[in-house]
Amino acid sequence: MSSLKTAPILPTVSRAFLEDWLAALRGYCSHEQVDGFLTQTGLSPISHPRARVTHDQIVRLYKLVVVETGDEMMGLWSRPIRAGALKHLCASTRGASSLSAVLYRFSSFWNLLLDDHHMTFEAQNGALRLSLISNKQTTPQYFGHVLLLKLAHGVASWLVGREIPLKDVSFEFDRPSFAEDYPILFPAPIRFSRPNSSISFDDALSDLPVSRTETETQEFLARAPRDWIFTSLREHTLSLRVREILLLSDQLDCGLGTAAEALNLTPRTLMRRLGAEDTSFQQIKDGLRRDIAIRDISHSAKTIEAISQDLGFASAATFHRAFRRWTDATPSTYR
């Protein structure tokens, strides 16, 4: 397992995480066209309840849909966001003097483009907060709200040269069944069923300077959306820190006590704090095993038996059962 110490194992997200985006896309394009997008990015047009999606697949799907539709927000808003919008957003915010000015310009930019929503920027109660407010009684697009708030975090982090820690993230919709996917994108306390969707930063960061060149901007745009959807997660939630500890342990054999010691916590405290993040030590361990398995099956020539042994399963048959539980597919079918 030594390769795991140098090769990044990115968390996957559930297929359900993308479903309302795909539903919106099917209202924007033909069903055949959407099925073609999915097939080209290695995703089945037929969704399985426990299917998983990798970061690479999301990035490829985004790039393909943007090119084919000419809408940089891929049918998620009532008005198409024409090609070049992200370029102009970067040009506008790059000229800001500080983080607070970046967030103000970000909200102003989107208020020129969105019809059914408007954005507000407030600096109060020790926080810099961007809020997305619906102008009409419409059902919120889960993925649209996620994408726009993540764009704010990603662009701001890129402009100041490091991932900016978040105070909290809120969504106006109810907690979905796949809520465990949200901390992968937003390493912060996440709340659902709030009056508005919003993202906030500590007010102490308001004067962070902005420094990006035109060349750096072009490189950022060429890599889009990877750099702004999947920021580096240096500001880990506790569950992601536990995942990292497990990743660096041989054969994923790190136990609860060892992980707690590495975090200077008692096992009981670690269990309680993970519970507050709606997860557990075993869930994190199983999720990491799942994501390593998906990576190795998708991108390596290892045999299924070798992958099974690397992940510490007692037998290939046990691994097959676990993989089917994770993805609704056998390892060979997934490959």
From TrEMBL:
Keyword tRNA-binding attached: no
InterPro entries, alphabetized: AraC-type_N, Homeodomain-like_sf, HTH_AraC
Residue runs in coiled coils: none
All residue ranges annotated as the HTH araC/xylS-type domain in the record: 240-335
UniProt superkingdom: Bacteria
Annotated organism of origin: Shimia litoralis
GO terms, molecular function: DNA-binding transcription factor activity; transcription cis-regulatory region binding
This protein's UniProt keywords: DNA-binding, Transcription, Transcription regulation
Keyword check for DNA-binding: yes
SMART domains linked to this entry: HTH_ARAC
GO cellular component terms, A-Z: cytosol
SUPFAM superfamilies according to UniProt: Homeodomain-like
Name this polypeptide is given: AraC family transcriptional regulator
